[in-house]
Amino acid sequence: MKGLPLAVSLTIAVGTWWAASLTFGAMLVPTPASVCRELGIMALQLETWTTLAITIARGLTGLVAALACALVLGVAAGSSPTAMRMITPLVAALQSCPPILWITLLMVWVGTGSTVAVTVVFASVFPPLFANIAQGCMALDRRLFDMARLYRIPKVRMLARVVLPGLAPYLLAGLSYAAATSWKITAVAEFLGSSTGIGAKVFWAYRMLEIPRLFAWAGIVILLGVALELLVIAPLRKSAETFTGKIREQA
């Protein structure tokens, strides 16, 4: 019975899709069957997998770069009010710029290609990662640090037993959002500023009025985000919460 809600949701979604196709015509809204058939054709083409690899590499590069910077600056801001006052305005300014503005500026400065997609992903996912990590640092029990200094507990052990478990839920919550967002942002950047990748394929499907293929590529973007959340982020988040609970019980 656990899968019943999911089955009901999928049934409603597919039913609504079919109704939209019947209402507006298959030219504008292709049927689920035609999109699935297109996906089957694409799965047999090497170009499809190359395109996926390009988009995934760009998204991961931007995400990893943003995570590395967010860890350094987030820990600094969460540990020091002065650092928080210095860094927060810069992060707020970065967050206030919409992706389309970054894409336009980067196309002017560096032309089209991977640099545009990677930079836009970084600019889009860095602020929420930074905010979560800084919040996690501020939520750590300062008395534990005082006890560590009093009993001269090694910093490496303190980091492994207190800091990382305390940060893990905040970090993974931000990473979950950032990972899901990065694929969408990458596709948008490729649509406007690249000749390769999923976004570029969506653009050419639109230009050539290949609507079933356009829907197929859109579905692939969604499936990538869902697969990442279910197979990677959710298990990590659950493990982090369990580990954090054990550490708090021992404390």
Automatic annotation (TrEMBL):
It holds the Pfam family BPD_transp_1. It comes from Pseudodesulfovibrio aespoeensis (strain ATCC 700646 / DSM 10631 / Aspo-2) (Desulfovibrio aespoeensis). It comes from the Bacteria. Belongs to the binding-protein-dependent transport system permease family. It is found in: Cell membrane. GO terms for cellular component: plasma membrane. Residues 52-232 form the ABC transmembrane type-1 domain. Keywords: Cell membrane, Membrane, Transmembrane, Transmembrane helix, Transport. It is a multi-pass membrane protein. This is Binding-protein-dependent transport systems inner membrane component. The chain crosses the membrane at residues 49-78, 90-110, 116-137, 158-180, 214-236. One of its GO terms (biological process) is transmembrane transport.
